[in-house]
Amino acid sequence: MDYSRLALAPLFRGIQPDEIEVIMNSTPYKTRKFREGSLIAQSGEAVTSLVIVAEGIVKGEMIDYAGRVIKIEDIPAPGALASAFLFGNRNRYPVNVIAVSDGELLVFEKSDFLSLMMKNDIVLANFLDMISNRSQFLSEKIKFLNFKTIKGKLAHFILMRSGQTGKSVKLELTQNDLADYFGVARPSVGRALGEMEEEGLIEARGKNISIIDRDRLTLLTAD
To answer: In whole angstroms, what is the distance from residue 164 CA to residue 98 CA?
Structure first.
């Protein structure tokens, strides 16, 4: 077990590797290996344990009513799966979880994890931060899905990452990633960006986007 890697996990933030080793030795857990392309969890499946990606990368994706696959996000090690759905009345996976690479999972059964949080205030506080962050992420994702036009989605994405008065933003996602994120075809993203540039709303230089007309860009989010 690589405790230094686990120290990078949101769940163990602020805890030293040697302390994590003590926690792991006193808390029951299982490991589960996975292969690239395998289905790790299916939408609607009960969430009965806290699962951390110890090695590798997985992704969350959903299929809409039109049969389109919408990528929600990549989850690289040492991220957690469906942490916001471990407790509550509807504790089921909201999306399919697919392996992007070979890797390994760290699995804490719900009762064992609950005991751990009762004994360790830092783990408890970190978990509360995790589920709060997930709720905020899902809230933003819902906003994207509600925008009718690709330009509206892109405008919201750019404005959110530039802040209230920012003039530029660096896109960390490729156009393919953005297409997956928005649930649209990849050429549509490039075409929309080109049209927004021709209309004088933005200026694109690779991944660097300069906001030329913030007011008109904001109007797109109302479409």
So the answer is: 36
